[in-house]
Predict the structure of Probable nicotinate-nucleotide adenylyltransferase.
Amino acid sequence: MAFFHAGPAPRSAGPRPGLLRDGLRLEPGLKVGLLGGSFNPAHEGHAHVAETAMQRLGLDRVIWLVSPQNPLKDDSETAPLVERMASAREFARGPAMVVSDFESRVGCRWTVDTLRAVTARHPGVKFVWLMGSDNLATFHRWRGWTDIAAAMPMAVIARPGSQLQSRTAPAARRYAAFRVPQEQARLLPDAAAPAWTYLTAPLNRASSTAIRAAG
Ligand SMILES: Nc1ncnc2c1ncn2[C@@H]1O[C@H](COP(=O)(O)OP(=O)(O)OP(=O)(O)O)[C@@H](O)[C@H]1O
Ligand SMILES: O=C(O)c1ccc[n+]([C@@H]2O[C@H](COP(=O)([O-])O)[C@@H](O)[C@H]2O)c1
C-alpha cells in the first residue's frame, strides 16, 4: 500500500503546510496516530506508547508531534525544539514512525488548535489522539478538552502510577458511554469521536523527569 503521495498538495487541502515536510502528504483513508509530547528528552516509554497503539489499533503511521511548549508546564526546563526533535528521532524507529514539528510551523501550542489545523489540512485521514494515562487524569484541565474529545477518537495507554486516578478522572466518567473495550480497539480509527479506548499494555516505567533528574 502507498502511504505517501509525493507532489503538490491537492486543491482541497489548500496550499498550507501539513504534518509532513518535503511535499509529502498523507493519503486519505490512512489510519494515523498522533502522539503529542514534550520529548524532553524522548525515551523508551514513548516508543512503547507508539508501538502499542500501532499494533492494537492497526495504525498505518504514528506521528510524533513535538510540542513547542506544553502550555501547562514550566518552560524553564524545556530544551530547545531542535534538540527534542533529534531526541524523538532516535526513538521513533522504522518507516511507520514520523517526527513532526507541525505545531511550531503553524504556531499552535494548545492541542485543541492543533487538532483543528491537522484535520483541516488532511481531509479523509483517520486520526486518533494518543496519550498516556497520566494525561487522562488531568485532561479536564486542558483548554477546550470537550472539543478535543469531539475532534477525533482517543486512545489512552496505561502508565505506571496513574492507572487508578485516570480511570476515575472527570474525562473518563464524562465519556464512559463512548468507551470502546480494548478487545475491540481495532475499530477505534473508524469510530466517531468521542469514542475512546484504554489500553492496558504491559507497563513501561520510563519518564523524561527521571532522565533529567539522573542527568
Ligand atoms: N512510560 C510511559 N507510559 C505511557 N505513556 C507515556 C510514557 N511516557 C510518556 N508517555 C506519554 O507520552 C506522551 C508524551 O510524554 P512526555 O513527552 O511528556 O514524556 P514524560 O516522560 O511524561 O515527560 P515528563 O516526565 O517531563 O512529564 C504523554 O501523553 C505521556 O503520557
Ligand atoms: O492544550 C492543552 O491544554 C494541553 C495541556 C497539556 C498537554 N497538552 C499536550 O499534551 C501532549 C503531551 O504533553 P506532555 O508535555 O505531557 O508531553 C502535548 O502534545 C501537549 O501539547 C495540551
Observations:
- Confidence is low (pLDDT under 50) at residues 6-14.
